[in-house]
Amino acid sequence: MTSEQFFESILEHFNNKLPFAVYRKPNAYEIKSFCQTEDVLYVISDYTESGFVFSPFDDKQDSVLIPFEKSIYSKCELQEFANHETSQITQTPSRSQKTQHIDLVTKGIDAINAQKLQKVVLSRCESVPCEHHPIDIFKRLLQMYPMAFVYCWYHPKVGLWLGATPETLLTIEGNRLTTMALAGTKPYQGTIYVDWTKKEKDEQQLVTYYIIKVLSDMKLEVASSEARPIQAGNLVHIQTIIKTNLKPETYDLKQLLGNLHPTPAVCGLPKEDAKQFILNNEAYNREFYTGFLGELNIKEKKTRNSNRHNVENDAYATIKTISNLYVNLRCMQIKPKNALIYVGGGITIDSSPEAEWEETVHKSLVMKKVFQ
After folding, report:
1. pLDDT for the residue 85
2. Per the omega criterion (within 30 degrees of 0), is the bond before 146 cis?
3. CB-based burial of residue 281 (10 Å sphere; 0-12 exposed, 13-18 middle, 19+ buried)?
4. In a domain? residue 218
């Protein structure tokens, strides 16, 4: 399928108000899509399903599924796209938005000082004008953020979301699970080697310890990398890679996701207390922001060397079940005349309300740059 045919099919689906998910994995050269052939709203039951999952922050709410068996699955090679004219966003957050977020962060710090919480992730939603077609926005995201999971997701009964997230929730290939702890944020200024504060190091370590404990409590042997800086668009974060081998006789993806999500990177600690604080104090509904999304239980042929396509290579090919799930960060929800941009940050006892506000301003630029 040519790229022109690929995007024509996506556009036709959108015009016909049919659900779809179109996406590109980090550092990949293929764009893939699930185009559902009916407008039925399917939800996840037990995570044995196959397709593309879109899950909200609040794990008590339904996760939406675009089922593999109800969809046309397509892919094409990534190519350069023509630039489309966009209007530069000059709108900046209002003083009242700043005041509200600083008050929220202060309230979070007070809860930590009162020992009600160890960490809490607090966020805000900013509305910016948007009259651009979502497919054009998606193409811009593909060009601008090659190292991110870039997606456009639509369901007529739910809404339209786009994003370029740097964070993997988990990757499962056969019995091998890989995940990451990603936290701490600095503006990218030409180098990933920056001076991290105690607050940022502690925040990332909390996420790392939590994920390792969850997996260890499930009787899994865990290996983790050294913490290292990585670039994500105009930002730098601290990342630790965590790996384990699942046990087929006890493997339960629903239980695993229930234990992991939402992680301290998007919620806080203790998990349930932080989640309740967020639901009670954030002045809006996160919906799918800080939820997760991606491929669920997809059958893929794996060869010895993905760069070699020959008869010998195919002879050693195996079919594995793959899940690639990503945390829904650096995202926006498209409305008729505006885009809702979601940004937040981790609050610890060492947080500064003013600095936390500035961090959300830097993060909002990841999405705003698409319109410039």
Report:
1. 47
2. no
3. middle
4. yes
* Burial of 273: CB neighbours in 10 Å, binned 0-12, 13-18, 19+: middle
Give me the domain span that covers residue 115.
3-80+87-304+314-371
CA nearest neighbour of 214 among 146, 178, 263, 168: 263
Spatial separation of the C-alpha atoms in residues 28 and 74, rounded to whole Å:
15
pLDDT along the chain (372 residues), means of 10: 89 96 95 97 97 96 97 88 50 84 97 96 95 93 94 98 96 95 89 91 92 94 95 90 91 93 94 96 96 95 61 67 96 95 94 95 90 77
Residue 80: CB atoms within 10 Å: 9
Q: Are 88 and 129 in contact (CB under 8 A)?
A: no
| Secondary structure (3-state) at 116 | coil
Residue 223 lies in a domain: yes
Residue type, 44: I
- DSSP class of 226: P
Q: Quick one: DSSP state of residue 88?
A: P
Reading the block at residue 233, the tokens are 């668009």
pLDDT of residue 94: 81
Burial-class residue 168 by CB neighbours within 10 Å (0-12, 13-18, 19+): buried
- The first and second tokens of residue 19, run together, are 């659900």
Q: Which two structure tokens, joined as six digits, stand for 245?
A: 């081998």
The contacts of residue 204 (CB under 8 Å, 6+ apart) are 181, 182, 183, 184, 227, 237, 238, 240
The CATH number for 186's domain is 3.60.120.10
How many structural domains is the chain composed of? 1
Does the bond joining 270 to the residue before it have cis omega, within 30 degrees of 0?
A: yes
Residue 274 inside a domain? The answer is yes
Could you tell me if residue 157 is inside a domain? yes
Question: Residue 319 is which amino acid?
Answer: I
Question: What's the rounded Cα separation, in Å, for the pair 200 and 183?
Answer: 7
For residues 106 and 308, give the distance between their C-alpha atoms in angstroms, rounded to a whole number: 56
